[in-house]
User: Fold this.
Amino acid sequence: MQEAKLISRKDFAKIFLGIGAFLVILGILFNFILDPSVFYDLPMYIGGIGIGSIIYGAKQFLDKANQDVGITISSKTVKSFFTNNAIILALLLLVVVIMIIQPRFMQYQVMLDILTQSSTKMIVALGICFTLLIAGTDLSAGRMVGLAAVVSTSMLQNPDYANRFFPNMPQLAVIIPILLAVIACMIFGVLNGFLVAKYDMHPFIATLASQVIVYGVTSLYFDMAPNKSQPIGGIRPDFIALGQTKVLQIGDFPGISILVPIAVVFVILVWFILNKTIFGKNVYAIGGNREAAVVSGVNVFVTIMGIFVFASILYGVGGVLEAARTAGATNQYGNGYELDAIAACVVGGVSLNGGVGKVGGIVSGVLIFTVIQYGLQFIAVSPMWQQVIKGIIIAVAVAIDMAKYRRK
Amino acid sequence: MAEYVLEMNHITKVFPGVKALDDVSLKVRKGSVHALMGENGAGKSTLMKCLFGIYHEDGGEIILDGKKMEINTSKQALDLGVSMIHQELHPIRFRPVMENIWLGRFPMRGIAVDKKTMIRKTKELFKEIDLDINPEVLAGTLSPSSLQLVEIAKAVSYNSKIIIMDEPTSSLTENETKHLFQIIRQLQEKGCAIIYISHKMEEILKISDEVSIMRDGQYVGTWAAKELTTDLIISRMVGRDMTNRFPPRTYEPSKDVVLKVDNLCSPLPKSFQNVSFDLYKGEILGIGGLVGAQRTELVEALFGLREIQSGSIEKDGKIVKIKSSRDAKMQKIALLTEERRASGIFGILSILDNTVIASQKDYSKFGVLQDTKRYKAAVKSNEELKTKTPNMEQLIQNLSGGNQQKVLIARWLLTNPDILILDEPTRGIDVGAKYEIYSIMHELVKKGKSIIMISSEMPELLGMSDRVMVMCEGKVTGILEQSEADSVKIMHYATQFMK
Assistant:
């Protein structure tokens, strides 16, 4: 019935190395022959895929542990490859389609924009993933982003700006308002953690309550005289620099927004915490089987507190960066971010039943959403249709993901 | 009319990486009790799930009443007259008993559920099998054994030709088991065939007409129950002779008291009260009793999972307060819980993570794990216990029950405990793995560790314990030396307060 073909890992690696080398050469060739006004940066992308392929091939080639294990190619393994990577494959397909419709999408500037736009969302999603990993959720994330944005900008306005939030406030070191903003978020993180850990409240309810409280508090603060709910503007340039600086501006290269390396630092930090610390292992343990975690002597109270507090720190950082990037803030900042973040996590393979989820998945989940949003805007799909498409992608992605776990 | 009500011929079922069933056949006569036996992982449950439409077989045929059938869903199986009592019950706890029974086929009047008819039908059903339960109480308020009986009633209510019972007596007391056997005889008289899966040899020999044995996904054979003995069944199940079910004892417990429990009382009046006992260094103290004797509650209190109202616990001569499992760990006490899946393993985590979870502090610096150290400890601990696994990254849920249990023991050994509390250590574990667990227990006491073992299996209790403490309704009714313990005395103490 099924035709299975076994090839050795060495040969498998060679195929990838070969394809990779071919694509790199093709990329270099195209760089000279293709008209940049028609194909933009296509050669660079082809070369990039080639380099990726070479790296993968080399990894397979040097994989000592599985050296003798061959690779089976049959309709079954191909099928499982497609279901396991369906989301990424769909994303690539989408990118290709958009590139065909609108070749300008091939500019690498587009990719840089997408990375920049993903950065703050990434930090929020990384925070929320902790709460999802213990089969919880955090609905207060978005409002905490708003709180941090308002608190930090309110103390970081130009001294000559007419509408200052605190007209007589001296010029503070940038770090002080940032810390205050993050601490403000931590207070509510403690509240969330306390409600969940102490009273065994479902995180949905506990964070729903604090979501409403946080918004109320932010609005009250925002409405204080003399500001009276006007958007906060006139932000100091040294703060704005935090969100708008470009690094690596060499020659023609336009540079990368500083938000990208900041987000990368947080990605690495969260990966480290989840995989290399006792705290991280305890998070997975509580999500995997809470009863067993209690019996094993995991300090559930402290771990849950830690989860919500750490998550709130990330929301705070996200809010501060968002304010710096946009050079302003209102109490509406961050509204709905939590749902985007949850959707991105889920599309990235984080299970709402707890215990399952990887940082790599979350990163791709967030990128997928930004690519879709950016790409659809790029080919001028109406915002209403964008919503419909986004919803469909969430449903389809999770349905495919669930199919991995179902067996009959 | 065909002689067999069910024929399953040459059934094959493959899961990724394992051949769960390999050319298995099963023929069940009309109105007979057909026992299906085999070690855990032998494929009994998988075979039954194929019959009940939960899995679809990859090869072979199912013939019901002489007609070849394709069974794809459980509903179809029920319609064809096959019902199943599952090993693990999942009642809807917040709904009444009767709704649990008639779920999916509520009696209707127009578009509304006909509650009166439902009550009447449930009462009739319960009367038929002599069950005294109010149809309107919530399922969650019933004891596990009552739930099991309700589940049996539900199977009866389908008027099935074949009822599959997967370990129906695992949570039943002796009297309830007798009751179950009466029900089975009644059903037999009506011409219903029973496929009976159990690990309890005595039961099988008593109730069944024929016994089919499976081993490693393969069919070994079918014999009339009359021709079989416990030893014959065991040797055919494991494929080797098992003259000794317990390893020989090669140690001598000391008389040093490691744990002294004095007058321990639970705040709940129906739970354990006035419990006092000593635990010696290097001994196995068995705790016997019926379901509901509060044995689990007692050991969970010793481990800090339940509240203690009064009384004291002395460890190595010092009074200790144990308020959480972390306190217990600090006092070098370990607990393997009764419910392996519910409160033991982390199914979706790796064997590595499962092994080190209780002792992570020893393999970390400032909260950061030292991967090589952690890995080496897990490998060593599992190798000592001979856990069978391809590697440490394997998810624990892919292991058999016996190997999962070994990983859990490995987990606790890494905390270097003085006292190991094992709550039903061999429940749901096959014969071969049981022997290995027993050997591990002997090794541990030889090293000077003490073991408290709760067991509901009389042979295990008698075969493994140096002393047996018997409980009944929350009180200690007797402590027997091994030389004086026998099943009659234990049963006597275990039923002391019962009419």
